[in-house]
Amino acid sequence: MKNFYKTIFFIAICFMFSTNTEAQITYDYDKDVDFSVYKTYSFGGWQDDSDKIINDIDKKRILSSFKSELLKRDLDYQLAEADLVITLFFVVDHKTSTTAYTDYMGAGMGYGYGYGGGRYGGYYRPAWGWGGGYSTTSYSENDYKEGTFVIDIYDAKTKKLIWQGVSQKTINENASKRARTIPKGVAKIMKKYPVAINKKKK
Question: What residue ranges are annotated as transmembrane (predicted)?
Answer without folding.
Answer: none
